[in-house]
Amino acid sequence: MAQAAAVAKPPAPPRRRRASATPRRLPYLLIAPAALLMLGFIAYPVISVFYYSLQNYNPTKPWRNGYAGFGNFVHAFTDDPQFWDTLTFSAQWVVVEVGLQLLFGLALALIVNQTFVGRALGRALVFSPWAVSGVLTSAIWVLLYNSQTGITRYLADAGLGAYGTSWLSDTSTVFPAAIVADLWRGVPFFAILILADLQSVSKDLYEAAEVDGASRLQQFRHITLPHLKDAIVLSTLLRAVWEFNNVDLLYTLTGGGPAGETTTLPLYIANTSVDAHNFGYASALTTVAFVILLFCSMVYLRLSKFGGEGK
């Protein structure tokens, strides 16, 4: 016992110092200013729109301002035929534009994905319209559709059509003319995203399919399309939202005319707020548009099974 007591006890291990909380919080502190600015620039306008949608707010008629409840929404759905007309045209515009842009964008991506002389230049030419701003695109097509100096004059010189014809002023031609103008800008978006995804498809899959006797169409159907599924779903969703909110091109080309034939819901909202100064009703229409886009996006992602095992 004495010997055991004489044995010196081993020294106690040094206590670990508690890790300072500051280094762990430092990244959050660094991004806090930017996060607060983003929150302010995004959250405040959204909350303001929801607030004013429940108000009668027109700076030119202050005696009518006040709480309206759901009166603006009731008016939109029951007493405003222009709301339904613009909503119908917006749906038509989105379906036609996104469908054609996807079709031509997929075709262009497949073409520039092949090996040929001058492929780099071809890709640059295909993608260049996407680098042009929406306002500049509109200005280009306004000049192209000009009745005195544009396409119609040269067609008239060739005996096709009459001089002074304006496609943007005719209700029978304004929609196709606007579609073509926006296709020029929107097709490269699909081509860029789809081409990026095509680069990741293994060539071994195509070689194995050729060995098994699969045709080009079968390879496209069973290899290419399944691989491109998520890229197509994401690009069509993004482009549908952008086309629904399209204001700059249609406003510059047609101003919503002729006779309101090309007035989308966002363009109607802009006219209601900026021209008529009816900010309360415009906020209610904006809220309706937000709910429509949110619902359609959720349904589309659910039906398409985005991010699922589809490859």
Structure description:
The chain is mainly alpha-helical and 311 residues long. The protein contains 13 helices and 2 strands. The protein has helices spanning 2-6, 21-52, 71-78, 81-112, 119-127, 134-144, 151-157, 174-198, 203-211, 216-244, 248-253, 265-275, 279-304; strands at 55-56, 66-67. Helix 2 (21-52) crosses helix 13 and helix 4 (81-112) packs antiparallel against helix 10. The longest helix is centred in the first third of the chain and has 32 residues, at 21-52.
Helix and strand arrangement:
Blueprint lengths: L1 H5 L14 H32 L2 E2 L9 E2 L3 H8 L2 H32 L6 H9 L6 H11 L6 H7 L16 H25 L4 H9 L4 H29 L3 H6 L11 H11 L3 H26 L7
Strand order of the largest sheet: 1-2
Count of DSSP strands? 2
Strand content: under 5%
Number of helices: 13
Sheet with the most strands, sense and barrel status = 2 strands, antiparallel
Low-confidence stretches: none
Mean pLDDT: 85
Shape: globular
Q: What distance separates the N and C termini? A: 74 Å
Q: What's a quick, concise take on this entry?
A:
The chain has helices spanning 2-6, 21-52, 71-78, 81-112, 119-127, 134-144, 151-157, 174-198, 203-211, 216-244, 248-253, 265-275, 279-304; strands at 55-56, 66-67.
Provide key terms for this protein.
single chain, 311 residues, mainly alpha, two-stranded antiparallel sheet, 13 helices, 2 strands, 1% strand, globular
